[in-house]
């Protein structure tokens, strides 16, 4: 039997913004449980919950201060168990977010570690002496701006933080740290979770010699982080050994999986995805930010898919177009679209035809757009620090919109932690539910089509050479082929088709006398073994 995760569609839930059940303006576990029918009704296989653990919320839960408890904002362990039970009843697997590259500075481990150079946890974080002139030990920057080093007067040393000052990096070179983190993962496996999303999996290890990173001459953006090639602060070869330990742990249990988040760009990201998923003893799959980027060309999507295939023929990718860290794709790619709904439908058709596992982000099934916020509404630290050049991630994290007629579109009866604005509320589930032509209806139809097509679920993938703006690839499984064609532009395109074929599924195109006509952002699935020409 093929493992369930290989062709799975995972729906990412951002707990703060899914459904508030207790009237505090913040989404919670009980709220998620109430809304699981919507998720199951889409026809997806699993949910991924962004962090729900005890946290001071400096980075909205990506700063954990207790790895084996639920933050009171979200509920209790009993609420979590009820959520898992309901999800399983509905046939949904549950994946939780493990943020173990760093903890919160309020974690008791760090509170102890920072006290002195000789306490029992002195070596649990990455500590280094200053240079003779008092400056940090090397040139490593933080992803969120400024140096990756923060001074601790009690130890007269610096500690490493790849992200916020409040997110000190755990020292994975220390076997006791590895053992303890693996035990926290066991805690959740025993509680019945089906898998883990591994936050910043390529940041786990740092160069033990703390060598300077070399410059990256190509950088032009407003962030300081891009000025270097991060060869010593992340992507370290030592990581593979730890990934194997994690795999051995999850393999002790039935049918569990891990998806690693590779925080990097370009060819490096693709190479790491391949390296971390090659063979059967590392991660089950990885995702990177390559398809979460502004690029929207056939060549780019082909490069991503072929890159992982070539880098690791037995590796496995997980692709997504949106998540809680990037501008929603309907807004990000709007320059390539006739209208937002056409783009949203095409994105669904394209993403759900890609090989591997697929991640959808809450609200994308509504064709949701990025929320425009003003400075006073922001919560995301990098945006608060570098506004307006850095817009931050709040605009993709605003609440889910359920009911057009209810306050805050049904998300909460209180003041929501981020606002629900009119353009977003106009896409509420209640409105789209009643409309057979809605983006929501298209997602359901395409998800169900994908389920019905073994070629889309497990097929090999080959790309014919066609000029932009057409992306085409053939998926083949056990002798049955389906050719997937997408017009990545706002003007119509035509192709010549040779061979016996029919348009399949919810295609948005027309075919007659060997001419395939794709409207703006059109898409087609063509049966059989055919040839395409521009
Ligand atoms: C990942 C998360 C992001 C978080 C960062 C630090 O990239 O997706 O939201 O800020 O890691 O944990
Ligand atoms: Mg609440």
Automatic annotation (TrEMBL):
<dbReference type="GO" id="GO:0004556">
    <property type="term" value="F:alpha-amylase activity"/>
</dbReference>
<feature type="domain" description="Glycosyl hydrolase family 13 catalytic">
    <location>
        <begin position="12"/>
        <end position="397"/>
    </location>
</feature>
<keyword id="KW-0378">Hydrolase</keyword>
<protein>
    <submittedName>
        <fullName>DUF3459 domain-containing protein</fullName>
    </submittedName>
</protein>
<dbReference type="GO" id="GO:0009313">
    <property type="term" value="P:oligosaccharide catabolic process"/>
</dbReference>
<comment type="similarity">
    <text>Belongs to the glycosyl hydrolase 13 family.</text>
</comment>
<dbReference type="InterPro" id="IPR017853">
    <property type="entry name" value="GH"/>
</dbReference>
<dbReference type="InterPro" id="IPR006047">
    <property type="entry name" value="GH13_cat_dom"/>
</dbReference>
<dbReference type="InterPro" id="IPR013780">
    <property type="entry name" value="Glyco_hydro_b"/>
</dbReference>
<keyword id="KW-0326">Glycosidase</keyword>
<dbReference type="Pfam" id="PF00128">
    <property type="entry name" value="Alpha-amylase"/>
</dbReference>
<dbReference type="InterPro" id="IPR045857">
    <property type="entry name" value="O16G_dom_2"/>
</dbReference>
